[in-house]
Structures are given as C-alpha cells and as structure tokens.
Amino acid sequence: MKPVMTEGGIMPGGSEMGTYKPEVALGVHELIDGYDPADPFAPIGVRSRLVQPSDDTLRFGPLEKIYLIWMVGGSCDGCTVAVTGGTHPRVEHLLQGIIPGMPRVELIHTVVSTESGPEWVHNLFMAERGELDAPYVITWEGSIMDESIAGEGYWMGLGDDPVTGRQISSLEWLDRLAPGAAAIIAIGTCATWGGIPAAKGNVTNSMGMMDYLGKDYRSSFGVPVVNIPGCSPIGDNYLETAAAVCLFLNGLAPLPEFDELGRPAWLFGETVHRHCPRAGYYEEGVFAEEYGDKECLVELGCWGPVVNCNIAERGIVDGHGGCMQMGGICIGCTMPGFPDKFAPIYAKSPGSLLSSNTCRVTGGFIRRMRGLTMVDKNMTPRWEQDAPSGWARSRTGPRGALKTFHKFYSAYQHAKG
Ligand code: SF4
Ligand code: SF4
Question: Does any ligand 1 atom lie closer than 6 A to the CB of residue 323?
Fold first, then answer.
C-alpha cells in the first residue's frame, strides 16, 4: 500500500513532501505487508496509519507525523535513559502530538518500541524502500565502530535479512538509511565525537557520526549532522533540539543556529564555569580541599572553565541536579577531546595552577574588602556603636585602622564617574 500525498510542497533542501493521509479507513484492517495495522505488535510503520489526528491538537504545518528511527552503535543506552527523563518538551507529548505546530512523532526505538524482532526491523525496510507514509529522522546513539575490521563477526548487529538470514549490522543500516533521512541527530559523546570507545587504543576504530559520514553529508532536507554531546547528555538538550529541527522540517521555523561543530549554539556557547553555582568561590579564591566541601572544585580536578556545557544552568532533570550542584567536578564529557585529553580524570588540570593561584591573591584581597562592606551594610546607622541583637551579635562597625580604611574605601565606592 502506498501513501497518498494530498498536498504538495518543496521544503528546504529541495525535497518534495506533503500531508500524508492514510488510505486505510478505521475498522477496515486491510493487511499491509502481511501485518494487521490494528495489531499492537505490528511495525509502527504499519500501525500508525490507523491513528487519526485528534481534533484537540493544533496543526499548522504540512506534516501530520514524522518517524524517529533511533539506532545504536557502541553504546551503554545512557542517552536513552537521559532522554526519557527530559521534560522540556516531554517525550510523551511528542509521541502524543499535542505540541502546537509539531508533527506527531512515531518512535522506532531499539529499546522502548512495542514491536520487536522481524516486526521492528520491518520498519527499517519500509524506510529504505520509501514505504513509510511520512519522512523519517535518524537519531544515532553510541560510537560508530568500523565493521571492516570485525572479521567474521560484527560489532553491532540490528536484525536479519529475512531472505538470506544474514545478520545486518547497525552500520549497514546507517549506510542504507542516511541518504533518505530528513535529518540525522547524533546523541551523546560517543555518537558525536567517538567518546570512550574511541579512547586511546581504540581497537574497534570507533568514531563519531560526522567523521563517518564526512563533511559533505546533507540529509534529504539539506541538513548536516546535528550533534548533541554529553556522557550522558542532558535529556532536554536533545528534546529541545529535536523539537526545533521538527519545526523546521514542518516548514514552521528556520533551522536553529548551530555552531561550527554542529552543536545547538544556544546550548553550547558558554562554559560550565560561567554559570556554575560555585563560580563566586572561584572568583574570591576559595577552593574545596575534599569532596563534600561547598567551595570551587578546581583544585580537585574540575575542567569547567574551559568546557562548553550548559548543565550548570539547565540541571540534569527538570532543572535540578547536575555535576557541580551534586558536588562533582567537570570531567569535560561534552568535549571532542574527551576522554583522552582530560585524563587522568580527577587529577588537577595543569592550567588550573596559574588561574587558581592568581585568584587566591586577587580574589583573596577582594574577598576581604567585601567582608568589610558586608559588615557595614548589615548595620543600621543606630548600631554603629552598639548592636542590640538578642542573638549574641556584639560586632559593631569597623574600628581603628580598619575604620579609616573603610572610610576611604567607602568614599571610593561612592565616588561619581
Ligand atoms: S567547580 Fe569547576 S566550574 Fe564550578 S567554579 Fe569551580 S572550576 Fe568553575
Ligand atoms: S559539567 Fe562537565 S562532566 Fe558535567 S555534564 Fe557538563 S561537560 Fe560533562
């Protein structure tokens, strides 16, 4: 059964697309490729044709739905776990198609799909043959391992060929599906830059998606590989970016801004350090001596000052948690140089010696000045001579040399111009 294209249009990148309508009427369960669309374990590419758009949802674009094919290479599934915890937007809302302007997302996922085995792989065959009734986006989790050096076996398998019984590798699927994909989103540091499987030694010749597909790759909608790094990444970073890409595919928004590494520029443009809740301690030259201390962690090995990551302001789940908030150092997990260029992890970084010692001197002086000002600002004019607090406060304003110093300091602070 072929999808019927009822409205046409040309999208950025030159791909023809339109609003796809199912030919199958509700209750007529005509078999498609031998599968009953009403069977909950049939391929989603078949089942989704029975889903009728709800009258409650706001549709603006030409796309009623979009398929998201989630495939894995050398991965720990941590990125999947991270994304299922995302909240802005929620995965459930994308699947329900209740976000205004967003096409409904039909998920073909190696872990959370209801169908499995041949029914799951059938979705990929449908995608390759152009039989899905909507465009598909590929999200790739995990490193790309070089199958040409796998010998008799394979590094990453994803289903059998139904005719020959031959194992098909994940990489072969990528080769077959990448040209027709509306977009490819690499999630996690393994998929973006190679990550831990590509660390020193690298017996599998692991690499990231951009390295594998090459700089000339463009999706069928004209989009280069999108990269959401992190080990694991912040779930919201993926969901927010995927939603923005879907709006673009739906013709409702321009492609959002990406940096020269294909990262969402608005998420990875700053260092962790600039938004770290401990940055004030760094500036005043006060450093933690052991885990559990509340001060800046740079002397315990934190790389935050030179790492592009937004976890300090975004948190890890629903705005909460994250590395420094939970007492951990930044080990640079979002960076292309991770892990080798950050090893040995937990050792003080070589560059931090100069900066932290400089802060110790300059920040130490500033901190003492602030202390003086704080004492002064914590006092009403009446308390200059005596503080009548029942909470044992006996401190009054600065005295002696400190008073003179504070007088000049205060005059300097309030000088105009
Ligand atoms: S803990 Fe790390 S990121 Fe935070 S202020 Fe210290 S060096 Fe910067
Ligand atoms: S703060 Fe550092 S270790 Fe934590 S997620 Fe960001 S890059 Fe990774």
Answer: no
